[in-house]
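Quick question, first post here. What does this chain look like in 3D?
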Amino acid sequence: MNLEPTLIVIQQVVTIVVIPIIGALTPAAIKLIKTHTTAKQWAIAEAIAKIAIHSIEQQYPNLAGDKKYLIAAQKINKELGSKLTPKQVDDLIESTVKQMNIALGKTIVKSA
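> Answer (accepted):
Ran it through. C-alpha cells below.
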C-alpha cells in the first residue's frame, strides 16, 4: 500500500487549516498569559507603584503630570521587568495617584 498520497493530503490539510488556526490563536494565548496575575502579584505591583509615585512627587514636585506619568511607568516597568501590560501599568498609576490625592484632600479632575 502506498501511503505517499495520504501523507501529502495530511500535509496539505495541516498547512491550509491547522497552521493558520494556531497562528490566529497564538496572540490571544500570549495576551492571556501576560495579563494573568495573581492577587499577590498585583499587591506587589501596587506597592511598587505607590513607592515610585511618592518618590517622583518628592523628587519632581514642579514637573508636569504627563512627564511624571512617563517616569512612573518607566520605574514600574523596570521594577517588575515589564510583566504588566501598558493598560495594567496605567491602571496602577491612575489608582495610586487617585488614592494619594484623596488622602491629601485634593480635588480630582480627570481630563477627557
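The CA atoms of residues 70 and 101 lie 18 Å apart.
The chain has two domains: 1-36, 39-104.
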